[in-house]
Design a protein that fits this description.
The protein is α/β, with parallel strands linked by helices. The protein has helices at about 15-25, 45-55, 70-75, 75-95, 135-155, 185-195, 215-230, 245-260, 280-290, 295-315, and strands spanning about 5-10, 30-35, 60, 105-110, 160-165, 170, 200-205, 210-215, 235-240, 245, 265.
Length: about 325
């Protein structure tokens, strides 16, 4: 393990920052890359240069253009194109950099599962329950194509690639822009602003009846590192917390932690997305010996505390 040189694509993202922190804590050599550092995973030549320059033995691909339902509705083609290019280029780079590159880890999304998949979603059900839910299908299909790329590049070229599916993640370092954020940071921002402004009501998208599973990014990082160092199979593994919560209950929980006591209104003209999403994580326990450790309330409290410090720092800077 100590001889590994691990590259993290998307290392500046919120999951990437959790991952890089844990790699550092383990004493592993890693190199973070992002578009800000001049490595755009949509450009094959930049990927090849980065892998060669740092003599990487392992690459973990977290690079993605993604966001909540609103962003998926506004720019579905952009999200599809970015994910398609990233997936294809990373696999091609891994093939060209063999045998020095010993492992490629690709991160997928729960959005790739079919809209009628029985809950909890099992890896074996992946292709047998229809098209992904329409509100984020282009992104989900592009990420699903990367799984078939993993299998194809393993079969034809012997590329040592693995694939992990994750539920929605949250945690410190996430982005909270209302036009593109996922549900947890969007709700945190809404309730913090309402609390600060003493607003009597907060409006939330949908009906609140849809359920979701959320995974703390620090727990996900641990699983990704374990899989990168220990797992070697073309068969994907689900990563999740094993616990569902309705969006209504989630909103109420965030409001409670924030200290907001006003009324929550539901905008039923906005989509709920898929009615239920929850992964079966049996395989992760069996193959990796991994289970999520962070309770949702604990992870939310950490995330809210972190975001509050960011807001305070912005006020001081202003």
């Amino acid at each position: 393990m100590q001889s590994c040189r691990i590259g993290v694509l998307g290392g500046a993202g919120f999951l990437g920052q959790h991952l890089c922190a844990q790699l550092g804590q383990r004493g592993l050599v890693y190199h973070s890359a992002s578009r800000a550092t001049g490595v755009d995973a949509r450009q094959l030549d930049q990927l090849l240069r980065w892998i060669h320059d740092h003599r990487l033995t392992h690459v973990i691909n977290l690079a993605a253009d993604c966001g909540g339902i609103g962003l998926n509705q506004r720019v579905p083609a952009d999200l599809w194109l970015a994910s398609t290019l990233i997936g294809a280029n990373v696999l091609q780079a891994a093939q060209q950099c063999r045998p020095a590159l010993q492992k490629l880890t690709m991160l997928g999304t729960v959005c790739s599962y079919g809209a009628t998949t029985p809950t909890p979603f099992r890896e074996a059900d992946l292709m047998w329950h229809g098209f992904p839910e329409p509100t984020n299908a282009p992104y989900g299909m592009a990420k699903l194509a990367a799984l078939f790329g993993v299998r194809a590049y393993r079969d034809q070229y012997g590329v040592p690639a693995i694939y992990l599916f994750s539920v929605n993640m949250y945690g410190e370092f996430d982005h909270f822009q209302p036009e593109s954020s996922h549900v947890i940071p969007a709700l945190i921002r809404k309730f913090l602003e309402a609390h600060a402004n003493s607003s009597p009501t907060v409006t939330v998208w949908g009906t609140g009846v849809a359920t979701r599973e959320f995974l703390y990014a620090g727990d996900a990082a641990q699983a990704i590192i374990q899989a990168t160092l220990e797992y070697d199979s073309p068969e994907p593994i689900n990563l999740g917390s094993g616990s569902e919560i309705s969006i209504l209950e989630l909103a109420q929980l965030i409001a409670e932690i924030v200290g907001y006591s006003g009324q929550i209104n539901w905008d039923r003209s906005k989509p709920d997305g898929q009615l239920r999403r929850c992964l079966d994580t049996t395989k992760a326990r069996q193959q990796l010996g991994w289970e999520a450790q962070t309770l949702l309330r604990v992870g939310l409290a950490r995330t809210i505390a972190w975001y509050r410090t960011q807001l305070a720092a912005q006020l001081v800077a202003a």
